[in-house]
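Handoff note, outgoing to incoming analyst
You'll be picking up this chain. Sequence as last confirmed:
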Amino acid sequence: MAASQTGRASHGDGAPAVTTVFADGDVPDNIAEMSGDEAALAALGYKQEFKREFSAWTSFAVSFAVMGLLPSIATTMWYGIGYAGPAANTWGWLVSVVFILCIAASMAELASSMPTSGGLYYAAAVLAGPKYGPMAAWVTGWSNWFVQVTGAPSVNWGGASMILAAASIVNPSYIPTNYQTFLLTTFLMIIHACISSMPTLWIAHFNSVGTVVNVLALIVTIIIIPTMTTNVPKFQPSSVAWGIQNFTDWPDGVAVLMSFLAICWTMSGYDAPFHLAEECSNASIASPRAIIMTAATGSVFGFVLNTIIAYTITDVDAVINTDLGQPWAAYLIQVLPQNAALAVLGLTIVCAFSMGQGCMVAASRVCFAYARDDCFGVLSKPLKKVNRYTLTPVNAVWFNTFVGILLLLLIFGGAAIDAIFSIGAIAAFVAFSIPIFIKIAFVRNKFRRGPWHLGPFSLPIGILGCAFVLVILPFFNFPSVNGADLTPELMNWTSLVYGAPMLFILIWFYVDAHKWFKGPKINIAHHMLYNEIEGLKVAPNKNVDVETGSTSKSSTA
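Most recent structure output, in case you need it:
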């Protein structure tokens, strides 16, 4: 894909920016000595730095662990069934996943064409071209990092809440405090940081085991709830299970759109294989397959579990407003014998632990990729270092951990902690849709496809995905109440918690960053064979040393 360069459009260290696709005849040095994956990465402007010890299966394993259907559904019940009732779990899920699968398919097509750890950020830069590429990459990259850095804290907060809820079930006199939840969540964050700092092969094995546990736990839960429920009758009528119970102050239609927050947050982990592409063998095929496998598997299993919940829950209000502080735990106690409820809750906690670790791995790779291109300013130098013993981005792991623990201070702000879930959905789908929108609106037929692609369906699928994002994202900022009922404690602070940092990022770009940030950077030597590149003419007398970024005195500006 692409390497464009001029004497002026260079990074602070002189390395040229990567903002278009490779021209014919532009060949990396020593390409004959590279493996197929190394050559493909070199064509994107990067040298191989990680061991390629992930496969399509292990990439899917990390992605499915990051999605964590069982703990995700358990943690986000407040924002799904808690807004629109059982309808959010049944037809609401079906409607939304159709569009989510469109976004996943379009993302898989990008991953096949540009299999780098930078993922969506790199794709946005390439597709937007030399003029707008840096801005597109800047916004996409920071939005994607926001969702990545909030992933592990939100998941571990949910896991910690379930652990403390289990303690409350066993000992009804025990009431968890915010302080205890914060300390337990922080402890889980540190454990995950240690695991994510290990060598790639160890992490791959850990996530493979975690995925098997996730799938088995999900299947066991799907079997246990309908067979062991104490409800009489066992199931609610379809009119209830597919009906709207509006627990907001907004009209029913708005409540349903607001409930898509739970679905979008649950179904937002399928981009992980994109970020693991540089550690995956046969990445241009394996990575998009892993993305599709994750989205499709999550859609089917998620619908089954959500439908079971919709047919068995008897009192939605009691579940959402439980004294246990965790709706999944309250639901299980409502429909199952106590021992069975604790068993399912225990399985969910194990899955949440695996999911949190998968989030930590994906976030560290994103952080490394962006630091490699100096997105973090003065912090980029330490963050882009690969540990010489583990060959993993250890500094990026612990940086994300530190930021995540700071975000957990929102626990002490009451409803403010909800913002990290809304950010997870909004920031993710903003980052997902930017390169897809650029591709369908501006690049169109000029897009250079990889070996995995959508053929003639690429354009309509991309349009459906982007239209869905445009419609639903504003509703994720709505509080559940309005008018006189709206208080600071019940306010939805997402627009502030996400909007303020993004506003700062935009101001930073226009005031300063645009001077030195020019998009993804080349870090591998290759020959520019004096051909015209899209948007740029390279003069025959121009001699560029890509390793140092220096140009000869005879070069033309």
